């Protein structure tokens, strides 16, 4: 009986995640790394900020079932990975000056626990369609996007080198971290790493996101 309840809860969790992803617009936009990603709202160049800090938490899933590799959730619970951690980045005068993401990755039964870290991006640019300017700025509705390459470590060892990443910050509330699945041997199951935003502040420390 307990096993059936757990299976039902996992199924409902998957439905919730899929509905949340679809609602956020991830499946409604352009294709990057074989994933469909959010491109954000219509672009408003008024009031954009080119120096700011953002930070938040990571709470995501990586599982073959979500991308269609498995047909039964109940018999493939070992394929379900949970990701949790923290992220932060800083932009100064339109240039990425700092980027950090640390996340614990473990199976839903607590096995296979390991830690991934991403420290800084090289060749970071804000020129992601429909944007053409290389400067990284916080635009209307607290939206920003940028891409670059980074090494991903497991523990103290660099496991994946020069991995292309695309990062979206949507409405000042959601982080969408897209990792090239080929360069990471599909370690994250071809899904974006999702997170929430704790704060966005300007260079004077003033809060920019709406706390309402």
Provide structural commentary.
The structure is a single chain. This protein has 212 residues and is mainly beta. The chain contains one helix and eleven strands; from the N terminus they run αβββββββββββ. The protein has one domain. Strands 3-4-5-6-8-9-10-11 form an eight-stranded antiparallel beta barrel. Strands 1-2 form a two-stranded antiparallel ribbon. It is globular.
Mean pLDDT rating:
80
Radius of gyration: 18 Å
Structural class: mainly beta
Beta-strand segment tally:
11
Hey, roughly how much beta strand do the residues contain? Answer: 35-45%
- Order of strands in the sheet with the most strands? 3-4-5-6-8-9-10-11
Distance N to C terminus: 42 Å
Q: Characterize the overall form.
A: globular
Annotation field: number of helices: 1
Q: State the helicity in percent bands.
A: 10-25%
Order of helices and strands: HEEEEEEEEEEE
Describe the largest sheet.
8 strands, antiparallel, barrel
Q: How many structurally independent domains?
A: 1
Q: Which segments are poorly predicted (pLDDT under 50) over 5 or more consecutive residues?
A: 1-31, 36-44, 70-76
Which key terms come to mind for this protein?
212 residues; mainly beta; eight-stranded antiparallel beta barrel; two-stranded antiparallel ribbon; 1 helix; 11 strands; 11% helix
In summary, what is this structure?
This protein is mainly beta and 212 residues long. 11% of the residues lie in helices and 43% in strands.
